[in-house]
Write a structure and sequence with these properties.
Layout lengths: L15 E2 L8 E2 L1 H5 L5 H10 L1 H13 L6 H13 L14 H18 L15
Antiparallel strand pairs: 1-2
Helix pairs in contact: 2-5, 3-4, 3-5
Bound molecules: zinc ion (ZN).
Length: 128
C-alpha cells in the first residue's frame, strides 16, 4: 500500500517512494515529475482537475485488464462532456489499456506543465 503524497495539500496517493528525500516518503506520479519549486502550482492544478483523477481512478478500480468497451465509452463521454475530447478513448483502433496510459500521461502533463504536451488537434463537437 502506498501512503499519501508528501506534497502539501496534494490529494493523491504516493506512487513511488523517493528514498533520496529521506527514507520512504511517498510522492504521487505528478509531483515526482515536477520540479520542487513548482509543487504548489502542481498541487493547485491537481485539485482543479480532481474530477479527471476520479475518472482515471475509476478505470483503475475496475482494473486495467478488465475494462470493457462500455467502461471506455462511459469515461470518454464524461471527458468529452467536460471539453476534453482529446483525452477520450479513440475506439476500437486503440486498445483500452493504451488509452488509459495515454489518458494518465496526458493528465500528468496537464497538472505538471499546465497543458497537455503534444496533444493533437482536438475533435470538435457538433453540439454542446
Ligand atoms: Zn502529489
Amino acid at each position: 500500500m502506498s501512503a499519501s503524497c508528501i506534497a502539501r495539500g496534494c490529494p493523491l496517493r504516493g506512487s513511488a517512494s523517493n528514498s533520496t528525500r529521506g527514507g520512504g516518503r511517498w510522492v504521487c506520479s505528478a509531483h515526482r515529475r515536477a520540479q520542487p519549486w513548482t509543487w504548489p502550482a502542481v498541487t493547485a492544478r491537481i485539485r482543479t482537475h480532481g474530477w479527471l483523477f476520479d475518472l482515471l481512478g475509476r478505470c483503475y478500480e475496475i482494473g486495467i485488464m478488465e475494462l470493457s468497451a462500455d467502461d471506455g465509452l462511459r469515461v470518454s463521454a464524461a471527458l468529452t462532456d467536460r471539453g476534453l475530447p482529446s483525452l477520450a478513448w479513440r475506439g476500437h483502433d486503440e486498445p483500452l489499456q493504451e488509452w488509459v496510459r495515454r489518458f494518465e500521461g496526458s493528465l500528468i502533463d496537464l497538472v505538471v506543465h499546465g497543458r497537455v504536451i503534444g496533444s493533437t488537434t482536438s475533435v470538435s463537437r457538433a453540439a454542446a
